[in-house]
Amino acid sequence: MKQCTLYVSIGEHQKVLDAIGQAFREQAVETSADGRSVTAVDRRWFGKRSITFNIMREDADPDEFLQMKRGMYGYVYQIETGHEQVKQKLLLQITALNVAVGIVASHELDPKTIESILEMAEAVHGIVFLPNGNTLDSQGRLILSPDGDSELEDFRVTVSSDLIDGHIKPSKSGEERKERSLKLLEERGIPSIRHLPVIVGDEDAVLRTKEEVVQRAIALCLIAVYAGGVTEGGDVQEEREFIEGIIEQYGAASFFTEKEKAFLQDAQPDRTAAIQMVWMYECYWVLLWALGYKEELEFPGQICDVNAAIDVLKQAGDYATFLEGAVLRSKEEILDQADLIYRYDWACVDARIHDRTVAGGLDGGVVMERHRALNWLICYMEDDWDHVQMDT
């Protein structure tokens, strides 16, 4: 192994450079003028050995860094493990990362070099990702492997205090909304934590356009209809021909994401993927409410009325009619629901981590899909549909 990556959540980026200098203090260390690269050279009797640290920062390379985090989050998310609490906290840690240090050596990483890398990690509270897919803490202990193994009973998430929801500006509307949500949770006997942050306020929120929401709603409904047919044992070719006819009817070919297109084109759809796509009815249900086709978004204690959901689109008959009949709800209404589902989802995740039934009658699956749809509606982290994050 000649390389690995150190990931950090930190406010003062200079501390990363300082940690490299301290950990490799016995070597000649040079930092580039822009601070993006550091080289440590060990001149021995029988040849020179070097190690290079390539530093990527979220503030300097936001698009590239976001893609990196999405890939890492998706990789960890799909790992099946008996250490669910560790996995959930690692996912939370990933969402808070803002510095990545690619470490490349001219030689195999020997125990002394690895010890120095872990010293760096400890100084900046980082995690180390190895080429084999293993993630280590700063003590060198296995946090999570691709096979779901872990040497930890728990994992402590470390986030620099000045980065906690730093993308969200404090606002009166956000704080007031949080208080209203907490009161509702208390009335319904649902656990909550006061230090869970606010979401974006009315002053700074940007919602999806009516056209975006309409197109996403149509795509979600059609992908769920197709997936439902597949999971119920229907002939894949017949199900595809059927849904292609409806896609043409609504002019919806361009409405699907890359992931959805791949699913629609798969000659032998994976059953697990199909079941996940059936869950898109719950997301579609939220968008029907956001478009004014549903008067109320009821408590997420049971799955939606699938037949009623399909009927809304069926009765419209085409894209133009569905678009014309839609009236996008106010920013305040959508943010109210987004804040509430954020806190509902925390209660569900907390119950899952501690292996207990969530109080208050919440359905964890319904809550998660509503959280996905509402975060997309409020452009959370500016993620596209395939990469919507549902932090709790």
UniProtKB/TrEMBL annotation:
UniProt-listed Pfam families: DUF4272
Top-rank taxon: Bacteria
The protein, known as: DUF4272 domain-containing protein
Originating organism: Brevibacillus brevis (Bacillus brevis)
Classification lineage: Bacteria, Bacillati, Bacillota, Bacilli, Bacillales
